[in-house]
Amino acid sequence: MIKINRLAEVLEIKKITNRELAEKIKKTEETVSRWVNNHRQPPLTELYKIAKLLDTDIRELLYPTKP
């Protein structure tokens, strides 16, 4: 499976659990787990909320692509 987001890595750096993130953005822990494990991808609106909550640039949540 191709990883698209870096959500797991950023959450680890920020020391925030899936459950804490789920509570803060009003999503289920199962939904966040799917995003973290790259089984599903969060919509851009949710990525924006997550980036703002984690005080990080939205680009930090995504794997870079080759030019």
TrEMBL record:
Keywords, comma-separated and alphabetical: Coiled coil
HTH cro/C1-type domain location: 7-61
Coiled coil: 11-38
Keyword Nucleotide-binding applies: no
CDD domains reported for this sequence: HTH_XRE
InterPro entries, alphabetized: Cro/C1-type_HTH, Lambda_DNA-bd_dom_sf
Single GO term (MF): DNA binding
Name of this chain's protein: Transcriptional regulator
Organism the protein comes from: Sphingobacterium athyrii
